Automatic annotation (TrEMBL):
Transmembrane parts of this sequence: 104-124
This protein's UniProt keywords: Membrane, Transmembrane, Transmembrane helix
Biased composition (Polar residues): 1-10
Protein name, UniProt field: Uncharacterized protein
Organism domain of life: Eukaryota
Region Disordered, residue ranges: 1-22, 35-63
Key word Transmembrane present: yes
Length: 599
């Protein structure tokens, strides 16, 4: 074979001889390029899948790819030497058929993707407490809510729960699930009602007991989408044992659990417009929260317009209740203590065995002039479905009637009527003054009213003191706007309403000797003493709004604990208050006529 043949760019045979036992010789055809006419790898081979328009792959890129592959291979061998079982794993995997390996990889990635999608779906469905309520100093709750609620009133709803299961006291069924049958339905219904009234709501639940994860899930699942939730469980504070103070022994202070909501309010004060703090058996409806807000705005409008002091010589001498002023101009110092108030009611479960039998005789009048004959509206507070706990005989009417609502914490002797200054809205024109303020209240801040017994309805009986327990009308909680809380805590209360409780009588950071009612039942808020605030609660006598001042105590157990003589039908009280209003209107005409004749 000549040199020309060897140098031609054609396929030549290269014989490879193998030292195989069969002596079989294999021939391998391979392309050989001469140095004079090298094979150009940058051009696509004939019949290849590359199109003419595609850019050729540079040889440098192939070298880089080959280098990366070699590097990774070296790294893998390096790890195999360090971790011997990696080689065994590789060998085991390579023994698996390729199709099975592919199926396993596809399944593994598919399972991961499905899990991520499920977690994302659950996160979007349920609000995160860490995002909704754990705010930094420059983040406000409105950033976590839909833009459609940007103008809504921001409300923080705080619920305090002492027991997960009832202990059998106070006419409850021992061992019944209070969380499932009481707290959960009441809290969810309250929140849903508030949201339906265009209120932007977040919830804080304070529990004396550890809350199990599955129970937290129940709450989150049932809360509306845009409602944030934060839980403070196992929240009982510790205090020194009152009988062993010298030894320094500690105890879990169940009474002071009602104090804990004040820390939450202090922490969240700048982020909300209004705070609603109640016990776990109090049903709070959007009608009532919205009414409190609107009524407070009207009171604030009157306060801004009011004079600093009144110099007409007709001071509100409330101690002389037979002659005290009950209409006319009010000063700023009077109006700054006025807040809307509430009364607790229960639904009468058994009218035959436990009917209302109050001994007080007082006329009731349901004729409201231009409004016609009116009665209370139970649907606002008390139309509510709640399954009774097992083993409980009584069933709660879901739609109680006018005569089914009863009051046990007050009666007509506790109330006075006041006509607010000219220019007041129908919300305030004539309002009921509730009991409470008294001790250590400055004279210029006292507010007089026409007491129900002023005309001799109760003989020579004197007007009760402000803090009478059977007449003060505990609320089971309170509502307040941010502005009201700031004013109370900074100037009106005789001791701190919000922590730190440095001036609370008894010391021990406010843990002793105060009871539940001091913190949550309105005693500090509405009555007068060394630690109290002397805020004056009012109720609108307007028949369109009176029922919004009634709060449903869903436990319905007070009617079983107390004597029937304490029970008063709410509609009866409504008619009696209207009678007092008419007495006050008549007395006002007589006073104005007398003053006119004197002048």
């Amino acid at each position: 074979m000549d040199d020309a043949t060897l140098s031609s760019p054609v396929k030549s045979r290269r014989r490879l001889e193998h030292s195989h036992s069969s002596g079989l010789q294999l021939e391998l055809l391979s392309p050989i390029a001469t140095s004079d006419d090298p094979l150009d790898l940058s051009e696509p081979l004939p019949g290849s899948h590359h199109s003419r328009n595609q850019k050729p792959i540079p040889s440098s890129a192939r070298k880089i790819a080959s280098g990366k592959k070699e590097f990774l291979s070296k790294q893998w061998r390096k790890w195999q030497r360090r971790i011997p079982f990696l080689k065994k794993i590789q060998e085991t995997v390579l023994r698996v058929p390729p199709k099975l390996r592919t199926a396993f990889v596809v399944f593994w990635f598919g399972w991961k993707i499905a899990l991520i999608l499920i977690l994302l779906f659950m996160t979007l469905q349920q609000p995160s407490s860490s995002m909704e309520l754990s705010y930094s100093n420059n983040i406000r709750p409105s950033q976590f809510h839909n833009n459609m609620h940007s103008n809504a009133t921001r409300v923080l709803y705080i619920v305090t729960s002492l027991a997960e299961y009832n202990n059998g006291r106070r006419k409850t069924v021992k061992g019944s699930d209070r969380f499932l049958h009481q707290l959960l339905p009441v809290m969810i219904d309250s929140v849903e009602s508030m949201v339906s009234h265009n209120l932007q709501v977040d919830v804080v639940l304070i529990c004396a007991y550890p809350l199990r994860p599955e129970r937290e899930t129940m709450i989150r699942y049932r809360l509306p989408r845009d409602v944030g939730l934060q839980i403070w469980d196992d929240a009982l504070p510790l205090s020194y044992h009152p009988q062993n103070k010298t030894t320094g022994s500690l105890r879990a202070n169940t009474r002071a659990l009602a104090r804990q909501h004040r820390f939450v309010v202090k922490d969240k004060l700048e982020y909300y417009d209004m705070f609603v703090a109640f016990e776990d058996d109090m049903l709070i409806r959007g009608h009532q929260v919205q009414h409190y807000w609107h009524m407070s705005q009207e009171i604030e409008r009157l306060r801004i317009m009011a004079p600093e002091s009144i110099k007409d010589g007709l001071g509100d001498n409330v101690d002389d209740y037979k002659h005290t002023k009950f209409f006319g101009t009010m000063s700023k110092s009077q109006l700054e203590r006025v807040v809307p108030g509430f009364m607790r009611v229960e639904v009468l479960v058994n009218d035959t065995e436990r009917t209302a039998k109050t001994k007080i005789q007082f006329p009731a009048d349901w004729d409201f002039g231009d409004y016609g004959t009116r009665h209370i509206d139970p649907s606002i507070c008390c139309h509510f479905h709640m399954e009774p706990p097992p083993l409980q005989d009584d069933t709660f009417p879901e739609a109680p009637g006018v005569d089914d609502l009863i009051i046990w914490e007050t009666n007509i002797k506790a109330f006075s009527l006041r006509q607010f200054p000219t220019g007041s809205s129908p919300l305030l024109e004539w309002s009921v003054l509730m009991m409470g303020p008294g001790k250590k209240l400055p004279d210029h801040a006292k507010i007089g009213g026409y007491w129900s017994g002023r005309g001799g309805s109760f003989g020579d009986e004197k007007r009760p003191s402000g803090g009478e327990p059977k007449l003060v009308a505990q609320q089971g909680g309170w509502m307040a706007t941010k502005e009201q809380l700031v004013r109370m805590n900074g100037q009106l209360c005789l001791a701190e309403f919000l922590p730190p409780f440095d001036r609370i009588a008894g010391g021990n950071d406010g843990l002793d000797p105060h009871n539940v009612e001091f913190w949550s039942g309105s005693y500090q808020f509405f009555t007068g003493a060394g630690n109290h605030c002397n805020m004056q609660r009012i109720i609108s006598i307007n028949p369109d709004h009176f029922s919004k001042h009634l709060l449903y105590h869903t436990a319905n157990n007070k009617q079983k604990q107390l004597g029937q003589w304490r029970m008063l039908r709410a509609d009866q009280l409504f008619g009696q208050l209207n009678s007092v209003k008419k007495m006050a209107e008549k007395a006002k005409v007589e006073i104005e006529t007398s003053n006119s004749n004197k002048s």
